Amino acid sequence: MGVNASWLKAVMAGTLCAGVLSGCMGGGSDELAGSGAAGQAQTGNTRGTFATIVAGGQQPIQVDPDAFATKVYCPPIQLKPDTYLISKYARGKENEPEGLLYQAAVEEWARSCTREGADQTRIKIGFSGHVTPGPAWKGGEVDLPIRVAILPPDEGEAPILSELLAVPVTIGEGQPSEAWTLVENKFLVPQNKQMKIVFGFDEGRKKGR
After folding, report:
1. Strand pairing partners for 148?
2. Minimal CB count within 10 Å: which of 77, 134, 169, 176?
């Protein structure tokens, strides 16, 4: 039932070329991770103004000056422990199998980075997974809460940013699991500063905690 990793990477690349992040001709790279693996690779810059170079005896060629620029640092991405799954139950039937409304899981994730202006980096993050209805589900839409936090390398420091994202998913009564995908590129951070991306489902405070 897992989401194909190549498929999510294609979604990320397709969104890139659709204009979510400009510069499809610029040599950017995507990092794919999933199933508990944390992204570690650094990615390159994607944007630049193309220049025309005329070589002796040859036709003019288009060269992107940014292709020779220093790679922009792209922070590693990791899943916060024990936040990959949501099990939602009908009120009064918590933890009873017949009271299960749905289970949602995040299964694959990816991130890519591009230079933004002189001193910022734009981070694009993609997630995918499935929602499986339970015996008590009567059909409708659910909003899956995913928190993305970008943190300094040292423990105890305040987050650079933290945002709760909502993923709407419609599932019918008695239907099989429904795939979901979210790609978001709103994250702007200081360029070439050490940090890490941590994410996971965030249902807020629960009773008994």
Report:
1. 163, 199
2. 176
What is the predicted pLDDT for the residue at 192? 86
Q: CA-CA distance, 29 to 130, in Å (whole number)? A: 26
- Predicted structure pTM score: 0.69
Calculate ∠ Cα 135-168-146, nearest 5°.
100
Q: How far apart are CA 166 and CA 143, in angstroms?
A: 6
Amino acid of residue 201: F
120: left (phi over 0), alpha (psi -120 to 50) or beta: beta
Nearest CA-CA partner of 175 in 127, 133, 117 = 133
With beta carbons less than 8 A apart as the criterion, state whether 79 and 201 touch.
no
pLDDT at 36: 42
The series of mean pLDDT values per 10 residues for the chain, 209 residues long, is: 52 50 39 44 41 58 66 94 96 93 97 93 97 96 97 90 96 92 96 94 70
Q: How far apart are the first and last CA of the chain?
A: 31
Q: Which residues, 6+ apart, have CB-to-CB distance to 64 below 8 Å?
A: 25, 26, 27, 48, 49, 50, 51
Asked if 167 and 146 count as a contact pair (C-beta separation under 8 A), the reply is yes
